[in-house]
Amino acid sequence: MDLDAYAETHRARWTELDRLARRRPGSGDDVDRMLADYQSAATDLARIRQVAPRSATGDRLSLTLHRARLRFTGTPVDPATAVVRFFALQLPAALYRIRWVTIWVAVATVLIAGITAVWIASTPGAVATFGTDAALRQYATQDFVDYYSDHGLGAFTAQVWTNNAYIAASMVAFGITGLFVPYSIVQNAMGLGVSASIMHAQGRLGDFFLYIAPHGQLELYSVFLAGGAGLMIAWSWIAPGQRTRAQALAEDGRALITVAIGLVLTLLLSGIVEGTVTRQDWPWPVKIGIGTVALVLVLVYQWVVGGRAHRAGERGDVDAFDRGATEIVAG
DSSP code of 242? Predict the structure, then answer.
């Protein structure tokens, strides 16, 4: 289908619908005409979406349909309904969109951390560059473990949450640069590798994994999600497809910035685990099991709930509801 020719053929009807939608209908005939035009335009939009999922013509028609629908339905839904819809559809769909990028960020982090740790541990004198023997011994035997119990429960949880949420939000917000996320990934991965190599040199590598495992599973995955969202935002203007770069950046940015809201919650859960579980004198299988359950809940929310929302037509962006209504009317 020639999109320009199709738009030119139906433009007069779309313009009339837009005119009626911008003012309160004056008679029953106006309402009937607007309803008929709305149904026809919804069918037109469904056909356009099949040819070009994102296009300026389709977006303008989508906005016209949105205005017309408000004339039928009145004001938007109440806040409670909007909140439920956000957490049941928009957020999981946005998380689902970045699922594979998240996996690649995780793989890159593990590889970089592993290579860093192995290189430092196998290079004579490399560990010594990070401090004196006494300082490294204190880090491995005291500082690393005491970090989880030196502060009060509430203060420690709040500190961890605030710091991690800031890092995650920065990766999403500055992902547009295309450089900040790779830099952050490398920096964080190398930091893990250095810490692991120091603990290994002091014979405390087991403590490294044991103390990180309860909260670190969800904490690290949240950082991977943030990196995935940031990279997707960068890719939207690097390879916009049929959209203009400005249009692609605006659309994907609005959708993926919702991931930052979700990360605030996942990192809060991770901070609670770190503040209340890691420091406890419980068997390690219990503490690690609690962290694993927290991670599994987030994975189910992203892959299962998000997949269901995505297949239902939700993309996590602002006009998803309009496309859903359009498909229902057109179908």
Answer: T
